[in-house]
Amino acid sequence: MADPGVEQRAALLAAASVFPLPDGARFSYGTAGFRAEGSTMAPAVCRAGIVAALRSLKLGGASVGLVITASHNPVGDNGVKIVDADGGMMSQAWEPFSDALANAPSPEALVELVLQFAKDEGITLGGGPSAQVLLARDTRPTGEYLLDAAVKGINAIIGATALDMGILTTPQLHWMVRSKNKSLKASEEDYFTQVTESFRHLLELVPDDKYGDELNKKLIVDGANGIGGLKLEEIKTKLTGLHIHVKNSGKEGEGILNESCGADFVQKEKVLPLGFGPEDIDVRCASFDGDADRLVYFRITSPGNTTIDLVDGDKILSLFVLFIREQLDAINGKDNQENKVLPTRFGVVQTAYANGASTEFLKNLGLEVAFTSTGVKYLHKKALEYDIGIYFEANGHGTVLFSDEFISRLESLTTKLSSIATGSAQHQAALRLLATSQLINQAVGDALSGMLLVEAVLQHKRWSFQNWCDLYTDLPSKQLKVKVKDRTSIVTTDAERRVCQPSGLQELIDTEVANYCHGRCFVRPSGTEDVVRVYAEASTMEACDILAKSVAQHVERILGYP
Ligand code: G16
C-alpha cells in the first residue's frame, strides 16, 4: 500500500483517539444515517465526518453535506447523515464502509480501514484535490457538541474543509449542497428568495375564471418545536396570500421537540398536537417534523374531541399528481395521446405504508405506481427515472422531481409560447410547471416548500380542505412498534411487503390477514429506532387493531422479548 504520509496517519489517529468507541457500542447507517442517544453519538459523528470528507475527495472536491439531526425522534436522541454532491442521500454503495468505520474498534483499526478504502476507491490522500463538507444541525441540545466532533473528523482528512452553515432544516442543507455543485446561488437567503418568489409566481398564475369559494387564507402550522417553525417565522410575512400562525414554533419555552407534536406524532396517533384546541376548529393545519423534512395536514372537527381529519403524504402526493396532470393536459391537449407537445414520462413512487385506497386512486388515474423499500434514499432514486417523478411516504416525506432534460424542454417551450401564444392556457400551464420545479425542493422532501406548493395548488383549484379529503377515503390503518431481542433477524423482500426470515412468520401473517376484508399487514425492522414496525390495514378500525395486535404477538413470540 502506498504510504499516504505520516502526517495523514497522525491526523486520523488523533481524531479517532478523541472519540473512542465505547465497549459494546454498535452503529448502523440505517434508513437515514446513524441515530442513537445524543450523548453517545460523538464517535459515529466524528467518523461520519471522515467519510464525508473522503466522499468529497472521491467526487473531485465537489461539496458534500453532513447534517446533525435525529429528525422525528425524541429530543434526547441525535444522529448524522451525509448528503451526496447531487443533494440527495449518500450513495448506498458507501454505507458498508461507513458502518465499518463507525464500528472500528480502535484508532489504529480506523486508520487501516481508511487507507484500504482510499486505495480501493482510487482516492489520493494527503495532498490530492481539496475536499469541502457543508455542515448543519437542528435545534437539539447535543447538536453543538456533535458538530465539533464532525469538524474534527473532517479535519482529519488533510486538505478537507468544514463549512458550518448553521442551524438549518435538513432540506435546506440538501438544497444548498445541490445548488453549490450546480454553481447556483446557495445561501440560506437564496433558499428563502427562491421559495417565496416561486410561490408568489404560482399564485399570480392562479386562474381568475374558476368558480367556487375563495379559499380560506388562514393556515396554522405545528412546527414540532423544531427548526422548521423558526424558519417559517422568519419568512411568513413574505408569503403574500397566506395568513400563517405558527404553534410549537421552537421558540424558547413553547414546548419540547417532537413531544406530543409534529408530523410523526400527528400521522401515527391521528390526534391533535399539543397547543391545538377548539379555537382551531375547521382551520387548515399543517404539521412539520423536528427537522422539517416531513409534512402532513390535519383539521380539528369538533370541540372536546382530540381526533382529527388527517391528510397524510399519500393525499399530498395525490393532490400534486392532479395538479401536474392538469398542467400537462393543458400543454398537450387532454385527448391528444399521439402527437404530444411535451411527451412526459410521469411516475409515482410509494412504499408499503401507502394507504391501499391511495394506490387504487392513483392507478385508476392510469398512472405508473412503483414501490420501493422505506427510506427516502430508495424512493428518490426511483423517482429520478422519470421526467416528472413524484414520491411520498405516507409519513409525509416526499417531493416532486423534474429531470434536467425535461426542464430544458419546458424552458424552450415557454420561450416559444411567450412569443406566439403568450397568456394562453398552454403558456400558463408551462409557466406553472416551471414555477413548481423552482418551488419544490429538488434534492429531498421539504416540509416548508412542500407546504407552499400545497397552498398554491389549493388556491389554484379553489379547493377547501374538505374537497381535498374527499379525493378518496383512506382504509383504516394501524401501526405498532414491537421491541424484540434482535430486530435485524427480520429480513424482508418485495419492497418490504413480505418477510423471508425468520421462516414461518410470513405464513402466520398471511393466515391472520385472510380473516379480514381488505386486510393487509406487513412487518419490518425500523432503520431509525430499535423496534420492529407492524402495519395493518382493513375495512374497519376495530379489525385493524386486532390484526395489528395478533401479528405483533407472533413477532414477539418468534423473535423473543429483549
Ligand atoms: C426517516 C427516513 C424516512 C423513513 C423514516 C422512518 O425519516 O428519512 O424515509 O420513513 O425515517 O424509518 P424507519 O421506519 O426505518 O424507522 P426521518 O424524518 O426520521 O428522517
UniProtKB/TrEMBL annotation:
Domain Alpha-D-phosphohexomutase C-terminal: 481-552
Superkingdom of the source species: Eukaryota
Taxonomic classification: Eukaryota, Viridiplantae, Streptophyta, Embryophyta, Tracheophyta
Annotated protein name in UniProt: Phosphoacetylglucosamine mutase
One Pfam family recorded for the sequence: AMG1_III
GO biological-process terms attached to the record: carbohydrate metabolic process; UDP-N-acetylglucosamine biosynthetic process
Residues annotated as catalytic: 71 (phosphoserine intermediate)
Enzyme Commission number(s): 5.4.2.3
Protein family according to the UniProt entry: Belongs to the phosphohexose mutase family.
Any GO CC annotation of this UniProt entry: mitochondrion
Gene: LOC100841669
Enzyme class, spelled out: isomerase
Transmembrane feature ranges: none
